[in-house]
Structure formats: C-alpha cells, structure tokens
C-alpha cells in the first residue's frame, strides 16, 4: 500500500528506486515494525547471520504485508507490483498459458529464474508455454500454486546463482519463506470486481500458529479458497466476412481473464528432539479449475464446424485442472566438533489435465461429442540434499564459513493421451475436416510418453569477513546429468564498506540451465494466429530428436551457459534512508528457444511425406541463439516518523535491455525446403528483445496513524513492441502509468477494514492496429505488462490474533 507524493528532497534521491523494503499492509503496526535492512537472509549465502544490508549481492525482501497490500489473490501478480525487475503479463487465447501464466525476471526467460521454498528447490509446472507469449518455449514454476496466506516473506536474489543452487538460476532466485510463528494468526475475506462489471473475485484466507511440546517447536497452518469470474475485452468482427470468420459486427470471442476456482493449503513445522537435533517439514497443496477460451469457429467453416451440431458456430472452452503438491522433510543439527548439518528429502508434483468443451471433432461427423478429455501433463521431482557447514578461525576479523553439500535429483515428465475422439482423424465428416477437438486437440498415444532423468551434484563455498570493511565469498558446483553430461559453475562475490554510509559490492558468476524434459519431448498441435495474418494455422511441435524435426535441421538440445557480472553501491546517507544501485550484464550462450512457426506449401509437403496430415506448419526447440542482457536496478526506501504517525516511502526503477547477439545459420535441411524459411524469425527476435518493458518505475508510500492508514502507489510500465514478419505491421505500445489507492481503518486491535482500487484511473494499453487485431476483434496485445482488465475495486476484512 503506497503513496507517490514525496517531499522534494526525498523524491530527488529516490526517483530511480524500488518498493521492496518497507512495503506494508495498511493495517499493520508501522511503529513496531522491524526494519527489513536488519532481516537475516537465507538466500545467496550460507552465513547464518548475514542481513539484507550486508549482502554481497542485490536482494529484495517482500514482506507478507506487501503481498497482501493490493486486491490480487495471486503471488506472481503481487510480486510484479512490488518488484520493478519482474514482469508478469496476462495473455489470453493462448491455450494453457491463458491459465498458467509465466513471470520473467530482468527480461530473461521465465525458466531462467530458480524458485525455492524455505531454501529448497521448487518443482516446475508441467505446462510448456507455446503460443506467442513472453516465455514462449519455457516451462517455469507456477508461482500461483503457493498460497499467499502461507508466506512470511519473499527473498528475491537479483543475481546469477547456479554455483550455489544449480540449474535455472541465471536471472536470479526467488525464495519463498513460509510463516513459522508458534502462535497468532489471521483470517481475511476479500471481494472485488472490475469496473467493466465482470471479473468478480472472492477469497477467504487464513493462517494460525500452534506451539509444539514445551516450546520445543511449532506448527503453522495456512489455507485459502476463492473464485474468479472471467472477463471479456473482445470487439465485434470488423472485416469482410468469409467462411472461416464471424459475421460482420458479431462479437464472437472471449478475451481476458479466465474463470478460476481455487483452493490451497500449506504447513510449516519444526521440532527440537534434542538440544542438537531437530526435525522439520513443510509443504503446500493446491487445486485449481481454470476455464479459458479458444478461437471462434464460424458456422460456415467447412473444415471446423458441423452445422447440425453448432448452427451458429461455436467458441471452444479450454478447461485445465491443476493439481500441485509439494513436501520437504528433513533433519538438521550440529555436532560436537561444531559442524552444522542438514539432510532433507524434497518431493514435488504437478498434474495438469486438459478438457475441451463446447466443441466437436469435425472428422467424426454429425455424431461427434461436444466435450472431450484431451490428456494430461505431469511433472515429478525427487531430491535428496545433504549440506554441512562450519565456522573456521583463520585469525580474521570474523570466522570463515565453509559450506559443502551433495544432491541427488530425479525428474520425471509424462504426457498422457486423451480419449480417442479428442485426437481422432476419423474421416467421417466433410472432406478435409479438421481432426481432433476443435480449440485444443487431445494428445494421441503416438505423441505421448513417460520420460525421466537423474542428476547428481557436489558443491562448496567459502564466505568471510576479512576485515570490518571487506567481505567476500567463493562458490563452485559440479553437476552431472545422465542425458547430456556435466556442467561446472562458479561464483565470486565481494563487498567493501568505505564508511557506514557507503559500500561497494560486485559479483562474477557462471551458470547454466539444463533443457527441461518437456522441451526435449513435448508434442502437440496448436491453433495459432501469426502476427499480421488473419488466417489460423494448425502448428505441430516436434521433439528436436524426432525424425521430422531433424528433417527441418534440428539438433539434440544442449544446456544453456551464462556468464554474469554485477557491480553496485549501497548508500545509507541519513537515518531511515536506504538506497542501492546495481548494474549487471548477463550473457547467455546456446539459449534454448522454440523455433519460428515454419509454414508454407513446401513445409506441408514435407510433413505429409513424413506421414503427418491435417497440419500446415511445424516447429521445434533449438540452441540457435545467444543473448546479452544489460541493465540497472535502483532500490530505495525512506521512513519519516511524524508526531503521531509514520510515512513509509519506497520507490524503484529498473532498466533492462536484451539483445540477440548470435543467430546460428539456417541448417541446410531448412534451406532446401524453402529459401524464405527462417529458424528464428523477426517475430521471435522481437519478442525476446522488445516484448517486455525496458523501463519500469514504482513509487509508493503509506501514511499510518493508530487507527487509519492511507496508501497510494503509481507504476510506470515502459513501452513494448511487436514485430511481425511483415515489417509494415510493426507496432509499439506506449508507456502507461497505473495508480493504486486504498484506505484502511482499525475499529479495534484485532480488526482491519480496507477499501481499495487497483488501476483506479482505468488505464488500458494502446490498442492494436487493424492489421494486428484480427479484423478488430483483439483490441489489446498479449504483451501488455499489466494486462487489459481496467480498474479493479475491492473490499477486505481482516481479523488477527
């Protein structure tokens, strides 16, 4: 909850900074709140008493109060409003990605961010993002499976950390720290709606702590359940109707937020068996039922509709059922020789079912069902970790921390087939009738399968405060995968405090990201609209190792490799003012990307020669590009103590620019198919370089008295651009300012009543040109960093004890 009007001197100092430190819920007690600068961190360090202010790498602390300070019920959305370096667009009409949306950090791919919970690796989603969104081709963690009610804080390490945590930690690390209090709790009820009259949301959330034994441990429980209605920002058809298009003026699409029913629970426990050994466990479980929409099928479309079933055409619904489970259990303690140790087992599971409803399979003819089970995707993770550390006396100002560890990890990914009608090409309908369920075809047995791999790692680290002013750390990790070989990563970090008010910090690190099992083996057919082209295409994704992909010139996937640098300054010039400025560069070689959609008559002929019918395009994953990302983060906070109130001010700025520095030459096999085919075309290059805002500015503050709190926040999202293959249709979407407001009242010590509005000025992104709007029906771009829902008002009642 935020305020954007700053005293002039403070505004000058903070004009380029980020709201990560003192953000709070308007109902919290600002007078007794502990400064996050003194928060002990567990991310990016093995030292047990390292604080935010002392960190050698840039790290943000997002408090639980900050996560609940707006109307959102989603963790990824809350983080995007608190971190200028995090981008979370809200795409629609993108199959499963409309339901499970990816977030990106520092302009890199969503799966180049490692997510931890209580310092342990979180499993990824089983979904692979495919259709024209940020993170196309990625399979990241679904942050929204973690209930906000379970979270104490989120630590975001904006630095490469593969040497400390392994694969994926190229852009940074998001560590979710769960609540661990042995007493107290909260219960809240939320209700909200968009100003357009749709998208109603409701939620009940709570948590409570329980003491175990004679104060020997705790059990903290949390839960939330809620519902969200869909929104629709589609427009009527404005072109010249054809057999595959709606009628003139017909509003045939639903474009916006999906319909969601969700529930999630979490627990966190720790118990001391003896003075030197304790056990711990934590976990989450969530179920979500999500319905989004596909492309409208016109009544006269000869290959997609059967008029006797849908005389007016039909709009297919894509229904996803997500079941997510996670549990970590372990023992930890210390020995007589002063070694601390931690042995843990980590299990994660994500199961995603697909259904297509209000549809048909045209090849089945007039007897086609109108609802199908399309199959499922499933990810399973099993990890065993053993970590030890010890403080060594080397005669320095403070002890040196030595850390050692080993990890064994097994990953599984399954693609399960749907029912026969969901994928069948029965030939009983009209000639050339489309096969499978219209909107989202099911997974056939021949493209399904179960895959797994094992990896092993050993790692070591040294951290030391050599003097009162100088500290440094060194980390190294060796990791071996049974499907592509081994990787070695290293990291060097240092911090020097010139005075109590000025410190310099920097890091150099190498990293990697292993290709996911989904990227190696996933196959499906998707209905895709290419930028600037009003015609739909049926595009099939092939594994890079398949004979069809190799006929296009594909090669087996290899891991991405990165080299990162950061240099920053930490300033505390006056009491209550904290400012950091960090510049960075991240080079990624052999970056994994999903190829362009390869279409045309020659492509169709090649597919048919391989026995693939009913589709008119193909694509596959490739290591064909290198990228360089450069940027700067400026983070600051200021607290102003008044006579009977406090004013907490935070601000943040991020500038990030990503460039594609190398594109591998087209393979000869692709050139032989067609001279105009490009493995990586300008659509994909534009998405990587210009599909996210290069600049993002946050200004916020909360004024708190004993009974009242008023908050105001403004966020400026920089411009984004789309680059169709026809350069005449290039479009830039201008920067936008969004404003959030709220007011809270405490009628008693336990109750807080809040009224608020996100995007209170009802700001929308620039509209698509006619060439990019599919005959006027898609008014807004899926690249919009804040979506296109408009103003959202909400009310909240919270009871704490």
State the main characteristics.
single chain; 801 residues; mainly beta; Maltoporin, Chain A; 22-stranded antiparallel barrel; 34 strands; disordered N terminus
Describe the structure.
This protein is mainly beta. It has a single domain, classed as TonB-dependent receptor, beta-barrel domain (Maltoporin, Chain A, Beta Barrel), CATH 2.40.170.20. It contains ten helices and 34 strands. A hairpin with a 4-residue loop joins strand 11 (259-272) and strand 12 (277-293). The longest helix is centred in the C-terminal third of the chain and has 9 residues, at 601-609. The protein starts with 7 loop residues before the first helix and ends with a strand.
Q: What is the class in the CATH system? A: Mainly Beta
Low-confidence parts: 1-34
Strand-residue fraction? over 45%
Total separate domains: 1
The counted number of beta strands is: 34
Number of helices: 10
Shape: globular
Helical percent range?
Answer: under 10%
Average pLDDT figure: 90
Looking at the overall shape, the CATH architecture is Beta Barrel
In short:
The protein has 801 residues and is mainly beta.
Task: Outline the fold blueprint.
Layout: H1 8-14, E1 59-63, H2 64-67, H3 75-82, E2 86-87, E3 104-105, E4 113-117, E5 120-121, E6 151-157, H4 162-165, E7 172-178, E8 185-194, E9 201-212, E10 217-228, E11 259-272, E12 277-293, E13 317-334, E14 339-357, E15 371-392, E16 400-417, H5 420-423, E17 449-465, E18 470-481, E19 485-497, E20 502-513, H6 517-521, E21 524-529, E22 536-542, H7 547-551, E23 560-571, E24 577-594, E25 598-599, H8 601-609, E26 617-641, E27 646-663, H9 668-673, H10 682-690, E28 695-704, E29 708-717, E30 720-722, E31 731-733, E32 736-745, E33 751-758, E34 792-800
């Amino acid at each position: 909850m935020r305020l954007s009007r700053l005293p002039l001197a403070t505004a000058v100092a903070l004009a380029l900074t980020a709201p990560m430190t003192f953000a709070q819920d308007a109902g919290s007690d600002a007078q007794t709140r502990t400064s996050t600068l003194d928060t002990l961190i567990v991310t990016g360090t093995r030292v047990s008493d390292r604080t935010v202010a002392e960190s050698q790498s840039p790290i943000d602390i997002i408090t639980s109060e900050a996560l609940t300070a707006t109307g959102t019920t989603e963790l990824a959305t809350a983080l995007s409003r608190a971190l200028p370096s995090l981008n979370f667009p809200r795409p629609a009409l993108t199959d499963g990605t409309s339901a499970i949306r990816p977030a990106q950090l520092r302009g890199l791919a969503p799966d180049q961010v490692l997510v931890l919970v209580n310092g342990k690796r979180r499993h990824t989603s089983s979904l692979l993002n495919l259709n024209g969104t940020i993170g196309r081709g990625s399979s990241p963690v679904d942050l929204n499976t973690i209930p906000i009610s379970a979270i104490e804080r989120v630590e975001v390490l904006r630095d490469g950390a593969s040497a400390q945590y392994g694969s994926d930690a190229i852009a940074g690390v998001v560590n979710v720290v769960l609540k661990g209090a042995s007493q107290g709790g909260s219960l809240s009820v939320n209700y909200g709606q968009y100003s357009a009259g749709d998208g109603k949301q409701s939620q009940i959330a709570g948590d409570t702590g329980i003491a175990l034994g004679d104060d020997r441990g705790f059990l903290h429980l949390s839960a939330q359940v809620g519902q969200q209605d869909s929104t629709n920002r589609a427009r009527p058809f404005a072109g010249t109707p054809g057999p595959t298009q709606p009628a003139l003026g017909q509003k045939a699409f639903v474009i916006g937020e999906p319909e969601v029913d969700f529930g999630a629970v979490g627990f966190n426990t720790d118990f001391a068996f003896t003075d030197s050994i304790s056990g711990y466990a934590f976990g989450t479980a969530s179920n979500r039922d999500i319905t989004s929409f596909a492309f409208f099928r016109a009544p006269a479309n000869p290959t997609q509709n059967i008029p006797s079933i849908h005389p007016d055409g039909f709009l297919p619904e894509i229904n996803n059922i997500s079941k997510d489970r996670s549990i970590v259990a372990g023992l930890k303690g210390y020995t007589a020789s002063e070694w601390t140790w931690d042995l843990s087992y980590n299990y994660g599971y994500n199961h995603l079912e697909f259904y297509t409803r209000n549809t048909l399979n045209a090849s089945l003819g007039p007897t086609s069902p109108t609802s199908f089970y399309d199959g499922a995707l499933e990810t399973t993770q099993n990890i065993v970790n053993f970590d030890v550390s010890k403080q060594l006396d080397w005669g320095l100002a403070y002890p040196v921390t030595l850390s050692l560890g080993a990890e064994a990890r097994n990953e599984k990914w399954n693609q399960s087939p749907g029912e026969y009608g969901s994928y069948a090409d029965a030939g009983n309908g009209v000639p050339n009738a489309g096969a499978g369920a219209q909107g989202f075809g099911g997974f056939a047995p021949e493209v399904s399968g179960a895959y797994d791999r094992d990896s092993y790692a050993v790692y070591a680290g040294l951290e030391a405060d050599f003097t009162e002013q100088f500290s440094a750390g060194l980390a190294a990790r060796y990791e071996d995968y049974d499907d592509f070989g081994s990787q070695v990563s290293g990291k060097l970090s240092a911090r020097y405090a010139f005075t109590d008010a000025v410190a310099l910090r920097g890091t150099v690190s190498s990293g990697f990201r292993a290709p996911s099992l989904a990227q190696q083996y996933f196959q499906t057919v998707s209905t895709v609209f290419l930028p600037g082209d009003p015609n739909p295409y049926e595009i099939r994704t092939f594994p890079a190792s398949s004979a069809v992909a190799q006929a296009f010139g594909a090669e087996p996937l290899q891991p991405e490799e990165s080299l990162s640098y950061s240099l920053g300054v930490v300033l505390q010039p006056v009491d209550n003012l904290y400012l950091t400025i960090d510049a960075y560069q991240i080079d990624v070689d052999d970056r994994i990307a999903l190829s362009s959609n390869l279409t045309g008559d020659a492509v169709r002929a090649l597919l048919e020669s391989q026995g693939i019918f009913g589709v008119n395009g193909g694509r596959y994953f490739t290591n064909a590009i290198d990228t360089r990302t450069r940027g700067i983060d400026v983070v600051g906070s200021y607290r102003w103590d008044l006579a009977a109130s406090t004013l907490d001010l935070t601000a943040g700025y991020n500038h990030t620019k990503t460039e594609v520095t190398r594109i591998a030459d087209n393979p000869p096999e692709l050139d032989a198919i067609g001279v105009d085919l490009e493995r990586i075309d300008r659509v994909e290059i534009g998405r990587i370089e210009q599909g996210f805002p290069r600049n993002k500015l946050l200004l916020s503050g909360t004024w708190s008295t004993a009974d009242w709190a008023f908050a105001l926040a403004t966020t400026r999202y920089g411009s984004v651009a789309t680059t169709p293959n026809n350069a005449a249709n290039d479009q830039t979407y201008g920067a936008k300012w969004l404003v959030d407001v709220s007011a809270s009242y405490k009628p008693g010590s336990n109750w807080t009543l809040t009224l608020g509005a996100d995007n209170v000025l009802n700001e929308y992104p620039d509209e698509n040109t006619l060439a990019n709007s599919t005959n006027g029906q898609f008014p807004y771009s899926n690249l919009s960093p804040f979506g296109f829902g408009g103003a959202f008002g909400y009310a909240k009642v919270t009871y704490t004890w």
